[in-house]
Amino acid sequence: MRLFTGVIAILFLGLTLLPVGAMVWQTFASGTIASHFDELFLSAQAWKLLRHTILLATLVTLLTTLVGVPLGILMGKTDLPLRPLFVFLFLVPLLLPPYIVAVAWNDLLIMAGFGSGTLSGLGGSLFVLFCVYLSVPTLMTILFLRTVPPSLEEAGRLCAPWPSVLRYVTLPMILPGILLSAMIVFLLSLGELSVPIYLHYEVYAVESFTQFTAFYRFDTATATALPLILVALVMTMAENRFLKKRTATFRHFAGSDTFLRISLGFKRYPLFLAAAFLASVVTILPMTALALEAGDFHHLAEAFLASHDALLRSLLYAAAGATLLTFFGFLLGYTLLKRPFRCAGALDPVAIFLFTLPGTVVAIAMIFFWNRPFAQIVYATPLIVLLGYLAKYSALTGRISLARLSMIPASMEEAAQMAGADWSQRLRHILLPLTADAIAGAWVVAYLFILRDVDLTILLYPPGEDTLPVRIFTMMANGSPELVASLCLIMATVTLLPAAAAWGVFVRKRRRK
Amino acid sequence: MTMVAFENVTLRYGERVILENFSLRVKKRERLVIFGPSGSGKTTILRMVAGFVAPERGTVSIADRPVSADGRILVPPEKRGVGMVFQDLALWPHMSVEENVGFGLMVRKVPKMERKRRVEEILELVGLKGFGSQNPSDLSGGEQQRVALARALILEPDVLLMDEPLSSLDRPLAEHLAHEIVRLQKRVGFTLLYVTHLEEEAAIIGTRRLTIRKHTSSSQTSRPEIF
């Protein structure tokens, strides 16, 4: 076990952290920072970028947390009708490339008679990213509500009404989960590229992307990315120090039979209307606008014919990437839980750090590392895209696996060990079957995150092998609105149909339990 | 013959001393009850015999063969000839009763027919004949306890470790099963190390008792006493 997990750990670090480390080293060694320090970090433009980046990420975090946590309690803790449907509707924008929501709302505003520039700048970016990331605190709240032992709430209910129990018992217990969700939203907003580009709001990720793609100033692009790397490092350390212990593993997870639910009584009707209104703003209206803008079936067919190769590649990349991520994620989770060698615990901060880095930074690091004559088999093929996904998203599958593995009592594996099962037999017969649901879940999450990815893929795809989100993004500048809307609709359909099926299976399974 | 021996064993978890210079000898076919309050280190003693924990100092031996010493596991758990019934029973929920019980034989590549025969035999021994195809979660608490016992016994261990296996059952059922465990031990002949914090269970099961008292002194040392 020690040897195998050790090899996997070295492979993981070599393929993911090494390129980023090499890029940072090169940035300092090349002297770019020393010679252009004032221009890069002290100029008015640099401060503007920093101010814009931090302001947008902070506002999106505050707004999504303030709305998402109560929404999560409403969806996860009460008897509101149609909760699974609502949760799925709130989840929809997160599953799509973020710029699709921006395109859809832009189309909607134009249809309503507003000018094409109505949705732009800070306000527009804030609104779109709020719609996109609202489901993060909502889902995290729902998840962490399940980790509160019912007996603690029952003890509170003996002497206080539900609002007081929520305030003094439940919310303090799920606070680490809420803080983690806020951190995730902050970092996703910080590294967001496509929405600020589309809505003309200058942020660091856009600047780094522009330096690299428009001017091919490699050193400047990497130097511009340094503040983002610094923020990611600080966030990783904060997560590791304050949140990891209380969010990475679950000792208690309530099943439907033991979970305490709040009866809303007559308040369910106004709350249902409020939830329906929010779901309309976040999902129903923009998706309807896309369908209307796409027009008739003829446009859709035309768009499909023009993009079926990119669509197929999107699905293939997502499936291959998700499989790679699930494999590494499971072994990462297992290694983190069992700690078979010294420094095994360091794998988690590394994975989190890479996840917190903006996709553009990871992509530039991959290009820097693999663009060498001897590495063309990686650089010139889809392998580099898959390695980019591995670096960026392994924290997701690793944490899902760790959380599920931590719920299996150690005695399950120990009993098999006493029965004579070696490590591979314990893995095959005990751990894999017991975590099959989480493995499937991790695969689906990885698949959906890769399918929606633009930031990484747009820089890494080999010539002529773009994905559908990348193709739509490049066509937004000069493609016809009908074609762009049709392509967005196709992207939404291929993402949402399997996601809806997976959600349906999940909800049915949980009800059966 | 001494079946299990602890010689000058010391174990600490951080600052907390669990055992200090602890020595113990358990004879073959003896039924030793390890008795004491929660958190006193009873389970740790079993886990050292099983091979999940190594003593920081000192030696643990099974059948006069050192199995762990001075922080090192010398013989892995699966090669110690020890069976264990866990406090939470640790029945694998994705396997049927017969798959749970026959798992040790399967990983040892015992032929299917032979495996089936031995599983049926052991299920009959613990009073679960005909339960093989059922899922553990469909069984009552007492039946689940018997499945865990059958799984621990099927490899014919020299030593059986039981970690409060009856703690989740109501008292009449627990006492009934305690008597059955004694009958089974007499019939099969294994050495039993049985952890409990209940006086009644200890009285039924044990031929000898190791009492661990949890002291509230600054060192938090648990001091074992043998009666």
What are its keywords?
heterodimer; A: 513 residues; mainly alpha; MetI-like fold; B: alpha/beta; Rossmann fold; 2 domains; 6-stranded mixed sheet; 5-stranded antiparallel sheet; 30% strand
Topology:
The complex is a heterodimer of chains A (513) and B (227).
Chain A: H1 2-29, H2 32-35, H3 37-42, H4 44-77, H5 83-95, H6 98-111, H7 121-133, H8 135-145, H9 150-157, H10 162-190, H11 194-198, H12 204-213, H13 218-247, H14 268-294, H15 297-338, H16 347-356, H17 359-370, H18 376-379, H19 383-406, H20 410-418, H21 423-434, H22 436-452, H23 457-460, H24 468-475, H25 481-512
Helix pairs in contact in A: 1-13, 1-15, 1-16, 1-17, 1-19, 4-7, 4-8, 4-10, 5-8, 5-14, 5-25, 6-7, 6-14, 6-25, 8-10, 9-10, 10-13, 12-13, 13-16, 13-17, 14-25, 15-19, 15-22, 15-25, 16-19, 17-19, 19-22, 20-21, 24-25
Chain B: E1 2-13, E2 16-27, E3 31-35, H1 42-50, E4 57-62, E5 65-69, E6 72-73, E7 82-85, H2 97-107, H3 112-125, H4 141-153, E8 159-163, H5 171-188, E9 191-196, H6 199-205, E10 208-214, E11 222-226
Parallel strand pairs in B: 3-9, 3-10, 7-8, 8-9
Antiparallel strand pairs in B: 1-2, 1-4, 4-5, 5-6, 10-11
The overall average pLDDT of chain A, rounded, is: 87
Main β-sheet description of chain A: none
By helix and strand content of chain B, what is the structural category?
Answer: alpha/beta
Q: In terms of per-residue confidence, which ranges of chain A show pLDDT below 50 for 5 or more consecutive residues?
A: none
Q: Tally the helices of chain B: what do you get? A: 6
**What is the mean pLDDT of chain B?**
87
Helix content of chain A: over 70%
Tell me the major beta sheet of chain B. Answer: 6 strands, mixed
Q: What would you call the quaternary organization? A: heterodimer
CATH superfamily of the largest domain in chain B: P-loop containing nucleotide triphosphate hydrolases
CATH 2nd-level architecture of the largest domain in chain B: 3-Layer(aba) Sandwich
Q: What would you report as the Rg of chain A, rounded to the nearest angstrom?
A: 23 Å
Measured by DSSP, the beta-strand proportion of chain A falls in: under 5%
Alpha carbon gap, first and last residue of chain B: 20 Å
Which consecutive residue ranges of chain B, at least 5 long each, have pLDDT under 50?
A: 215-223
CATH superfamily of the largest domain in chain A: MetI-like
In the residues of chain A, how many domains can be counted?
2
